[in-house]
Amino acid sequence: MTRSLLLPMALIAVLPLSGCISFGATPPDTLLTLNSTAALPVGQMQNSATAKSIVIAVPVTPQSLATTRVPVQTSTTSIAYVKDAQWAEPPARLFARLLSDMTTARTGRVVLSQVQAVTEANDQLAGELRNFGLDADARMAVVTFDAALTRSGATGTEKRRFEARVPVSAIDAASTGPALNQAANQVAQQVADWVGR
């Protein structure tokens, strides 16, 4: 058999396998995100020279939240994930952005990045996003945030746990997004009010 015939025959042999090869999971039809219930006016000027400023860090998370999938607590020791539900980006980043918007809207604080804050005296908000998913037994969306706030000029750090639970009609992709968005906004509002006092 000549060399010129070997290549086409090899390609023909591989063709039936091409339908079986996948280079990653098929993404869902839609991706979930968070939207703040506290709207920020477009074009509003903020200045850290005339208003208090704060740095809001992206929260740390347990491994179950270090993904774009939505966890479901199925028992005290078991976690599954909601079928066809996926975040547009990791939930810790979405939540940090929501906290920033809510804090600015409710307190008037200027939210700065770590780089912008190098020369500023400002508050620092960090923490751990402990829960950001569904509780299957209770049929609830649960958001739990352990916050750590260091106020400018203070000698210590304040810590506080915030949590919100919102009922879900079903453990599915359609019910997950709105319920978690509502719970996340409730927690962000509580945190902003605490920061602003």
CATH class annotation: Alpha Beta
Q: How many E strands?
A: 7
Amino- and carboxy-terminal Cα gap = 84 Å
Instruction: Give the H and E element order.
Output: HEEEHEEEEH
**Stretches with pLDDT under 50, minimum 5 residues:** 17-23
Set out the fold topology.
Blueprint: H1 3-18, E1 53-56, E2 69-75, E3 78-86, H2 91-107, E4 110-112, E5 123-135, E6 140-150, E7 158-167, H3 173-196
Parallel strand pairs: 1-4, 1-5, 2-5
Antiparallel strand pairs: 2-3, 5-6, 6-7
Helix pairs in contact: 2-3
Explained architecture:
The protein is α/β, with parallel strands linked by helices and 197 residues long. It has a single domain (52-196), classed as ABC-type transport auxiliary lipoprotein component (Rossmann fold), CATH 3.40.50. It has helices at residues 3-18, 91-107, 173-196, and strands spanning 53-56, 69-75, 78-86, 110-112, 123-135, 140-150, 158-167. Strands 1, 2, 3, 4, 5, 6 and 7 form a seven-stranded mixed β-sheet that branches. Mean pLDDT is 85; it is low at 17-23.
Short recap of the structure:
By secondary structure, the protein is an alpha/beta fold.
Name its key features:
197 residues, 3 helices, Rossmann fold, alpha/beta
